Amino acid sequence: MExxxxxxxxxxxxxxxxxxxxxxxxxAGTGPLDAITDVPGVQVGHTTVRRQPDVxxxxxxxxxxxxSPRAPLxxxxxxxxxxxxxxxxxxxxxxxxxxxxxxxxxxxxxxRVADALVGWVLERPGCExxxxxxxxxxECNDGLLSDIRARPVHEEHVRAALDTASGGPVAEGCxxxxxxxxxxxxxxxxxxxxxxxxxxxxxxxxxxxxQANFGGTLRVLGHTLTPRSxxxxxxxxxxxxxTGSCMxxxxxxxxxxxxxxxxxxxxxxxxxARTGAAYSHGSGDYAIAFGTRPGGAPVADAxxxxxFESVLDGVEEAVLNSLLAxxxxxxxxxxxxxxxxxxxxxDTLASxxxxxx
Length: 357
Description:
Elements: E1 2-6, E2 42-51, E3 55-64, E4 73-82, H1 89-95, E5 97-98, E6 102-106, H2 110-122, E7 136-140, H3 155-163, E8 182-183, E9 186-187, E10 190-199, E11 202-214, E12 218-220, E13 223-225, E14 244-252, H4 258-275, E15 284-291, H5 305-325, E16 329-330, E17 336-337, H6 342-353
Parallel strand pairs: 6-7, 14-15
Antiparallel strand pairs: 1-2, 2-3, 3-6, 4-5, 4-15, 8-9, 10-11, 11-14, 12-13, 16-17
Helix pairs in contact: 2-3, 4-5
């Protein structure tokens, strides 16, 4: 079994992202990395777990550098469709506080990951007397391409993702919790993006990270795309639209309270509709939104419009980045899911629009 922590990717080391192709979503500018790590104090770590050909799984950690049970952060959660296992969600909804990093993984590994996260947090300085802890772990079902019943993600993989989490560029596509995921007919995975927004005359950053694994039909700049239309395989080679999920994590340095962050999380789930999400019976569509600035006066509700728009645009771009970064994968049962080709995407958009703007 190969287990690989992923350090930040150097420029040019990954496939082209949406903006590299001239696909710009929304008017707002991005942070320097166009990633969730543009939010100060937010780090990301991945551990990818592979055993060819049957296991393609892993864990992804979103780690605010100041969070702990003794110093929780404000947080909100929204469930678009609750066919999923978001561990910790009831306490988040009740108290509006985040006590741990947010981890993402495979469905049947979520419970092992939560246990490992509890152990890791209890060992942190200042947690010697902690007797109650709310681990937050989300999941997507990677069972199409990975032997999900093997539950291949173990404590050492969780600790590696947490211990190697860092700022800087975020590895995308078939890494960590996105190693075996599929979305909108194509191989998907982890994607990220950020936006700079001005609220009440002050500039703030909103960053998003997605674990994309949901059904529907891909839409890019208003154009519908399928594997068949892109010439990369049969439309019937992937899960039906009533399967799959998406986990979304939003971070911002804007001073917001838990109620306002719940409103932000709601927009993050709404954004999936732009990409062609089906939101069907078997989907688990969740967003967690946390703030990195606890305390102080929150931004007035009437000023939140630019942040809402930034999150909508950021999630749409992050999903597209997750597809563009992924690679064609053959996994469990010999099933193969094709990647979204950047060149074919550009050709298709050019043939239907004339130009890509």
